[in-house]
Amino acid sequence: METYLDMSKDQYIAFMQLPEEGPMQMLNLLKFKAEVPETGLTGTAQYDAYMAEAMPFIQQANAKVLYYGATQFTLIGPEGDLEWDKVIIVEYANRSAFLGMVTQEGYPSHLRKLALVDSRLVFCENLLGRD
């Protein structure tokens, strides 16, 4: 099974070609390690440590965490299988705000990677309220 913890070069290039204007939401689907050998924490606890260190960067980017929650039950999909442990949706003013945050010196992306077995980061555009 292939896992994804970073964007590929091709994904980065395609993302850079998207329009700059307007707010954007990033949907994060997260699957945690049972244990992080480097720290002795669970993946969930390691991700909590990442969020604590990432929050000042999120605030500095004027981004908003719109939703952060644990999955509970699958209504459509394989029964008894929760593919993702948590979901987080963060809104950024634009693409530059997101890229500026994740490339800023000191941003704790290494803590995120330690916590995860697999993830998806999906760019979204809110269509509510559009003509």
Could you characterize the architecture of this molecule?
The chain is α+β, with helices and mostly antiparallel strands. It has a single domain, classed as Alpha-Beta Plaits (2-Layer Sandwich). The protein has helices at about 10-15, 45-60, 95-100, 110-115; strands spanning about 25-30, 65-70, 85-90, 115-125. α2 (about 45-60) runs antiparallel to α4 (about 110-115). The longest helix is centred in the middle third of the chain and has 18 residues, at about 45-60. The radius of gyration is 15 Å and the shape is globular. The mean pLDDT is about 95.
Average pLDDT number: 93
- Low-confidence regions: none
Please give the alpha-carbon distance between the first and last residues.
41 Å
Gyration radius (Cα, Å) is 15 Å
Largest sheet: 4 strands, antiparallel
| Tally of alpha and pi helices | 4
Beta fraction of the residues? 15-25%
Based on secondary structure, the structural category is alpha+beta
In the CATH scheme, the class would be Alpha Beta
Apparent shape:
globular
Strand order of the largest sheet: 2-3-1-4
Number of DSSP E strands: 4
Q: What share of the residues lie within helices?
A: 25-40%
SSE string: HEHEEHHE
Notable traits:
Alpha-Beta Plaits; alpha+beta; 4-stranded antiparallel β-sheet; 131 residues
Q: Helices and strands in order, then pairings?
A:
Blueprint: H1 9-16, E1 24-32, H2 43-60, E2 64-70, E3 86-92, H3 95-102, H4 109-115, E4 116-124
Antiparallel strand pairs: 1-3, 1-4, 2-3
Helix pairs in contact: 2-4
Structure, briefly:
The chain has 131 residues and is an alpha+beta fold. The chain contains 4 helices and 4 strands.
